[in-house]
Design goal:
Structural class: alpha/beta
Shape: globular
Number of strands: 4
Radius of gyration: 15 Å
CATH topology: Zincin-like
Strand order of the largest sheet: 1-2-4-3
Largest sheet: 4 strands, mixed
Distance between the termini: 20 Å
CATH class: Alpha Beta
Helix content: 40-55%
Mean pLDDT: 89
Number of helices: 3
Low-confidence stretches: none
CATH architecture: 2-Layer Sandwich
Order of helices and strands: EHEEEHH
Strand content: 15-25%
Number of domains: 1
Bound molecules: zinc ion
C-alpha cells in the first residue's frame, strides 16, 4: 500500500498510523491512498472518495479529527474503511443511476442508496473493530 501525502504532512502522520494499524482489512484493490488535510472543515473528522476502477482512494483528514478522543478517531477510521469496502457497489449504483430515467433515480437511488450504505457501515465497523 502506498500513501501519498498531498498537503498538511504534520497532521497526516497520525491518520497514516491509524490506517497502517488496520491495513489488513483495507480492500486489496486499493493500491494507493492519497491523504490531504482540510483545515477549514471542523464539522467532519474524515472523508473518503473511492475510485475502485482506478484503484486509489482520496482521504481528507478534517479539522474535526484533531483533538478528538482516540476512541472517536478509531471509530472514524474504521467507518471510512467500511465505505472503502462498499465502494465498488456504490460505484455500480452510480453507474446505474446515470442510465435510469430521472423519476426512478429520485425515488429509488438518490433517497435510498446513500441511506442503505450508511445503514450497513456500522455493521461492518462492528466486524472490523474486534479484529
Ligand atoms: Zn459514512
Amino acid at each position: 500500500m502506498k500513501y501519498i501525502q498531498k498537503k498538511g504532512s504534520k497532521e497526516l502522520q497520525e491518520i497514516r498510523d491509524w490506517l497502517i494499524e488496520y491495513e489488513d482489512v483495507i480492500p486489496k484493490w486499493i493500491t494507493e491512498i492519497r491523504l490531504s488535510y482540510d483545515a477549514d472543515n471542523r464539522d467532519s473528522m474524515l472523508k473518503v472518495a473511492c475510485h475502485p476502477y482506478r484503484r486509489y482512494v482520496e482521504m481528507d483528514l478534517c479539522a474535526g479529527f484533531i483533538g478528538a478522543t482516540d476512541e472517536d478517531k478509531e471509530e472514524a477510521v474504521v467507518h471510512e474503511i467500511a465505505h472503502m469496502i462498499l465502494s465498488p457497489i456504490s460505484d455500480l449504483i452510480g453507474l446505474v443511476r446515470d442510465v435510469l430515467p430521472s423519476g426512478m433515480v429520485d425515488e429509488i437511488l438518490e433517497k435510498q442508496a446513500e441511506k442503505a450504505e450508511e445503514f450497513v457501515v456500522p455493521d461492518i465497523v462492528n466486524i472490523i473493530k474486534p479484529l
